[in-house]
Design goal:
The protein is mainly alpha-helical. Helices cover about 80% and strands about 0% of the residues. It is globular and about 45 Å long.
Length: about 260
C-alpha cells in the first residue's frame, strides 16, 4: 500500500528483483558483447578503458574496503587457515586476493615465454588458460551472487552492479588479449555463464557471513590488482584525465549516496 492508501503497483521486493536481473544481464553482456560496449561516443577505446579503471579502483577503496572493515567482527572466534589471518584484519584477505591474481598473471606470462613454451608445447597454453579462466569464473560467480544477495539496499546494489559491469569490461579486454582464440571460443562464454550461475545460487542459497566476507575480501584484492594491471592502458597509451574523471565522478557518487 502507498501512503495514500492506494495499492502499490510494484513492491520493493519486486523492484529489487528486477534491478538484480538487469544488473546480472549487464555484467553478463560485458563479456558477450565487448565490442558493442566499447564503442564510445567521443572517446577512444583507451580513454574508455581508463574510465572503467578509475571507477573500479575508487569503488574498491571507497566502498569495498570500508565494507570489509565493518564486517570485521564476523571473523571473531574463527581460527581456520585464511580466517585466522582475517581475524587479525579483514584487509589481509584482500591482500591474499591481490596476491592470488598476481600469481595467476605471472603464471600466464611465464607460460608465454619462449623457453617455457618450447619445453611444454603444445600443451603449455591450455592448462594455463583453464586455470586462468577457472579463477575468473569463481570471481564472476561471486559477483553474480553478491548482486542477487545484496544486503545494503537498492542504491548500493546498483552502484556495485554498475562498477562490476565496467570492471569486467576491462577484464574481458585483458583476457582476450592474453588468450586470443581460446578465450573467444570458450572463455567469454564460461565467464558470462559464471555470472548467471552465481546469481542463480544467490537466488536459492545463502552462504555464511564468514564465507561471504572472505569472498568479498578476495574479490576486493582482485579488483585492485586487475584494475591496475588490465583496465589502465600501458603507460605510453594511458589516458590520465579520463581515469581521473571516472574515479572522481564515481567517488563523489559513492560519498553522496
Amino acid at each position: 500500500m502507498t501512503d495514500n492508501g492506494m495499492p502499490a503497483l510494484v513492491s520493493p521486493v519486486e523492484i529489487e528483483t528486477i534491478l538484480a536481473a538487469v544488473l546480472v544481464g549487464a555484467i553478463t553482456a560485458a563479456h558477450l558483447l565487448p565490442e558493442e560496449l566499447l564503442e564510445p561516443v567521443g572517446l577512444s577505446r583507451e580513454s574508455l578503458l581508463s574510465v572503467t579503471g578509475g571507477v573500479s579502483i575508487v569503488y574498491a577503496f571507497v566502498h569495498l574496503l570500508p565494507e570489509l572493515d565493518e564486517r570485521q567482527e564476523v571473523f571473531e572466534g574463527v581460527t581456520v587457515l585464511l580466517w585466522s589471518l582475517a581475524a587479525h584484519h579483514a584487509y589481509a584477505v584482500a591482500f591474499v586476493g591481490l596476491a592470488l591474481f598476481y600469481g595467476l598473471e605471472r603464471l600466464a606470462t611465464v607460460s608465454k615465454s619462449h623457453d617455457f613454451g618450447r619445453r611444454l608445447a603444445p600443451v603449455a597454453d591450455d592448462p594455463v588458460f583453464w586455470v586462468h579462466v577457472g579463477a575468473f569464473a569463481v570471481y564472476n560467480a561471486f559477483i553474480g551472487y553478491a548482486v542477487v544477495r545484496g544486503e545494503a539496499g537498492a542504491d548500493n546494489v546498483a552502484l556495485f552492479g554498475i562498477a562490476m559491469t565496467l570492471h569486467v569490461v576491462g577484464n574481458d579486454e585483458a583476457m582476450e588479449r592474453r588468450h586470443h582464440e581460446l578465450y573467444s571460443r570458450f572463455g567469454k562464454w564460461i565467464l558470462a555463464g559464471a555470472v548467471v550461475l552465481g546469481a542463480g545460487i544467490g537466488a536459492v542459497y545463502t552462504v555464511s557471513d564468514v564465507t561471504f566476507t572472505t569472498l568479498l575480501g578476495l574479490l576486493t584484492g582482485g579488483i585492485v590488482f586487475n584494475s591496475i594491471k588490465d583496465e589502465l592502458p600501458r603507460t605510453r597509451e594511458s589516458r590520465f584525465w579520463p581515469f581521473a574523471a571516472g574515479a572522481t565522478a564515481y567517488g563523489l557518487l559513492l560519498l553522496l549516496l
